[in-house]
Specification:
The protein has 2 domains: 181 residues, FAD/NAD(P)-binding domain; 147 residues, Polyamine Oxidase, Chain A, domain 2 (Alpha-Beta Complex), CATH 3.90.660. The protein is 32% helix and 19% strand. The chain has 13 helices and 20 strands.
Length: 447
């Protein structure tokens, strides 16, 4: 049995941030991590001679971003690549019609104007929505208002409806009927977005420097008591401490393989029950030459053929090597979960050949994620189900009994499902443990 002041479960960004601050404050801390590496859902794969961020990839808005401050302090190179919350414009986008023809500039402008008109009607629709309303409910209300005012024909309405469905999928990996009406309330990006040509995992390495991290320690149980502290059971022994910070994903918290005893009380339990993990996978296609539109950062297709594969992002500039990134999100991720890589690639390439012709080349390399099957995640990140409110994120982080704390991307209201949320929630958890404020800049202090 090993005894310390604080046990941190999970060596992702939230856990490493917490441990770094507590260790800096003089506490004895051990981090227990089930994987054989740091980072959690920040995972850079360097196989095949490529640098591929299979998990988190972006800082979504570097303005006043603590994550950007941290990566700058750790000397991590970045490349600007702004996606803007599934934006319809602002960056060069090649929009294709249901028939597979690229929209003219005028056609694209009219389509984008329709999206902006619906978005303008969406905010009041969300504010007026019922507690159990879905994102479908509020977008349909906004569509009705905008199309009525503009006397839109059926096809025009359907094109924007598809866009809203895809936004739900690509932002939260959830079908639009299953996402809470307020599920995209946090969808705000301030400043440029950046990616990492040398890999995002250098953030985890920087945060973990000097910490006591026990890799390949799978936690199965957390027993806590206000009087006796905590006991954490792993497959490699038992650890005891005064308190514990649990930073595992929502999917693990909800798993029978991870037992908290006594069970989490309200309001934590209720908030946890209204969140769930998504279905969101990346597919990287690497080619020996480019065949797609020049001068665009994204390709999008409308219509039934784009139900699954509707958006491709050009990553060529990131590594000076032709590459496209697409997502299997929501229903597509669920339906293709058991498919082989060859089957997924054939399905994707079928759509690209609709747009660019039968003679385009096959990819020379493919990398595909499988977060749904990961026993230490059960999905990519959490989203709000029907009946959930944005307050559920913060409620999930309510300290329990003075000894148990939760942190992670799902526990931060302002920007959930991001590395920013993970880092900020880890900072808050450390402050709760210490009982006083700590400057967030201590997270990335290199002295």
């Amino acid at each position: 049995m090993s005894e310390v002041d604080t046990i941190v479960i999970g060596a992702g960004v939230a856990g490493l941030t917490t441990a770094r601050l507590l260790t800096d404050a003089g506490r004895r801390v051990v981090v227990l991590e089930a994987r054989d590496r740091l980072g959690g859902r920040v995972w850079t794969d360097r196989s095949g001679g490529y640098v591929t961020d299979r998990g988190a990839s972006w800082i979504h808005g570097i303005t006043d971003s603590p994550v950007y401050a941290a990566v700058t302090a750790f000397g991590m190179p970045t490349t600007e690549f702004t996606v803007g919350g599934y934006q319809p414009d602002s960056r060069p986008i090649a929009h294709y019609s249901p028939a597979g023809h690229r929209l003219t500039d005028d056609e694209a402008a009219r389509y984008v104007a329709d999206i902006h008109a619906v978005d303008a009607a969406l905010t009041p629709a969300i504010e007026a929505s019922a507690p159990d309303a879905s994102y479908r409910d509020v977008t349909e209300a906004a569509l009705a208002d905008a199309s009525r005012a503009g006397a839109w024909e059926t096809d025009r309405v359907q094109r924007v409806r598809e866009y809203l469905e895809h936004r739900s999928e690509e932002q939260y990996g959830a079908w639009i009927d299953e996402l809470a009406a307020h599920g995209l309330d946090d969808d705000q990006v301030d400043g440029d977005e950046v990616v990492f040509p040398q890999g995002y995992d250098r953030l985890a390495s920087g945060l973990g420097e000097g910490l006591e991290v026990r890799l390949e320690h799978i936690v199965s149980g957390v027993d806590w008591s206000e009087d006796d502290g905590v006991t954490v059971t792993t497959d490699r022994g038992v650890f005891t401490a005064h308190d514990v910070v649990i930073t595992v994903p929502v999917g693990v918290l909800q798993s029978d393989a991870f037992v908290i005893d006594p069970p989490l009380p309200e309001p934590v339990a209720g908030a946890l029950g209204r969140l769930t993990m998504n279905a969101f996978e990346k597919v990287f296609l690497r080619f020996d030459e480019t065949f797609w539109d020049e001068g665009v950062y994204a390709i999008r297709q409308q219509g039934p053929e784009g139900a699954w594969w509707h958006s491709w992002y050009d990553l060529t500039a990131l590594h000076d090597s032709p590459a496209l990134l697409t997502f299997a999100a929501g229903p597509a991720a669920v339906a293709t979960r058991g498919w082989t890589d060859a089957e997924v690639v054939a399905s994707i390439m079928g759509q690209l050949r609709r747009l660019y012709g039968d003679d385009i080349p096959e990819p020379i390399a493919v990398q595909r994620t499988a977060w749904q099957d990961d026993p230490f995640a059960h999905g990519s990140y959490a989203y709000m189900t029907l009946g959930s409110t944005t307050d559920d994120h913060d409620a999930l982080a309510t300290p329990v009994g003075g000894v148990l704390h939760l942190a992670g991307e799902a526990t931060w209201t302002d920007d959930p499902a991001t590395v920013t949320a993970a880092l900020c929630s880890g900072h808050r958890a450390a402050q709760n443990v210490l009982g006083h404020e700590v400057p967030i800049e201590r997270v990335w202090a290199t002295e």
